[in-house]
Design brief:
359 residues, alpha+beta, four-stranded antiparallel β-sheet, 46% helix
């Protein structure tokens, strides 16, 4: 009997193993869930939606490139620096004394630069569209160099300044579509940004009562106002995987599409007069010489655009964009390609004109 009771007794070791296995399985499931919900790159549909929705919501074809093959072999920011900003970087030039002064005059000059470049950014969007990023970036930064000389009066250029102006223009354009809320300073009395109604609100909005911050009796308060409210939703409605000869043909065609821009990189580098140089850098009391491979980095930025050898799958995604009334306001076809476990939009084979709804 004693032996029988012992066999029926609580076996802590076995239950400990079972509990450990259960916990491990739960952790694996949670990890997979976290990755699949947080990282869109593992799903062709999610990548297609992120790319399309990023453009349609605010006209931001610039940041949409982070979902594309441009960013496969290099960070998108590094690509823009090496391939488009590098010819205009001039950190050795003397800055105008007004820059960094914190004066009203400095603010007015910088506003003039930003506003002038914003008008030019809209002109480039209308002329090329961000599908032709090569023309947009090439023309934009050449213009920015000239505008800085004319407005500020110096030839100093660094990447921080260039990104600051360009990304501000992108953000301003987005707000012109979506509208923006009234913003108060920390004193809850001073309005630093007035409320605006965006183009999308005018185009798609239904009048609704919403809560907003307003200045009442000299102080910020939440009030209810009638405003146009809209909602745009992007969804993949069909996915088709390319297979066999169709897949091979697609990869071959992709290689041909990227070849022209890669092949002119060396010629452009020569035309800009780019060189590999050395620069002396001082860290505390130690002087160090470092290589500045501007020419090599410029050419490499373009060479990295060819991902044809690594593509192992391609899917064609068809998407619809609907408003809050379930009306289709745009459709888009996107080709997404798989490299390793990640998916990227093939930006060489897309026309996003229809996603710029304000046009």
């Amino acid at each position: 009997m004693a032996n029988t009771k012992e066999k029926k007794g609580f076996r802590a070791g076995l239950y400990g193993v079972i509990a450990g296995v259960v916990v491990a399985v739960v952790l694996v499931v949670l990890t997979i869930f976290a990755f699949t919900t947080r990282y869109t790159a593992f799903s062709p549909e999610k990548v297609a939606v992120a790319y399309t929705d990023g453009i349609v919501q605010t006209g931001d074809g610039y940041n949409a490139y982070k979902q594309t093959l441009v960013s496969k072999n290099q960070k998108f920011g590094s690509f823009v620096i090496n391939a488009y900003m590098a010819p205009y970087v001039n950190e050795d030039a003397e800055k105008s004394k007004i820059i960094g002064s914190g004066t009203k005059e400095e603010a007015e000059l910088l506003d003039c630069v930003y506003n002038t470049m914003y008008d030019y950014y809209i002109e480039l969007l209308n002329k090329y569209g961000m599908d032709d990023y090569d023309s947009v970036f090439s023309d934009y930064f050449a213009k920015l160099k000239d505008v800085r000389v004319k407005v500020i009066g110096d030839e100093y250029m660094d990447t921080e300044f260039m990104f600051g102006v360009f990304e501000s223009n992108v953000d301003t354009y987005g707000k012109s579509l979506t509208g923006c809320a009234r913003v108060f300073a920390s004193d809850n009395k001073t309005i630093t940004q007035e409320q605006t109604i965006g183009k999308y609100q005018e185009m798609f909005g239904d009048m609704q009562e919403v809560e907003v911050d307003a200045l009442v009796d000299g102080k910020k308060q939440t009030v209810k106002e009638e405003q146009p409210v809209y909602k745009l939703t992007t969804k993949v409605v069909e996915t088709k995987a390319l297979e066999g000869d169709e897949l091979d043909t697609y990869i071959a065609d992709y290689k041909e599409r990227v070849a022209p821009i890669i092949n002119v990189a060396k010629t452009r580098a020569e035309e800009f007069g780019l060189e590999n140089t050395t620069k002396e850098k001082k860290i505390l009391f130690i002087k160090k010489t470092e290589n500045v491979n501007t020419k090599d980095d410029y050419i490499a930025a373009y060479e990295k655009l060819d991902c044809s050898q690594d593509i192992n799958a391609v899917s064609q995604c068809t998407l619809e964009v609907k408003n809050q009334r379930d009306e289709i306001v745009a459709t888009q076809t996107v080709y997404v390609v798989q490299i390793g476990n990640s998916w990227y939009v093939d930006n060489t084979n897309v026309n996003t004109t229809g996603l710029y709804l304000a046009k």
